[in-house]
Amino acid sequence: MRSEKHQWVTVNYIHHNPVHHGYTAQWQDWPWSSAHDWLEYHGREHMTRLWRDHPLLDYGRGWDDAEF
Asked: What ranges do the domains of the chain cover?
């Protein structure tokens, strides 16, 4: 992680990943998401502020396109 902002954008990316890949319409629908635990521990207001202040934008763009 290069900064605190980078850390929180990464956490948001991980929580949004099931939606990004089309497994669910909303992250809340993914039963294995750690976002549920984060919400319980930190509270909805705090997590909403983190999601709003650290949006995904183009984070991770092109990673899934790599050929191995």
From this structure: 4-57
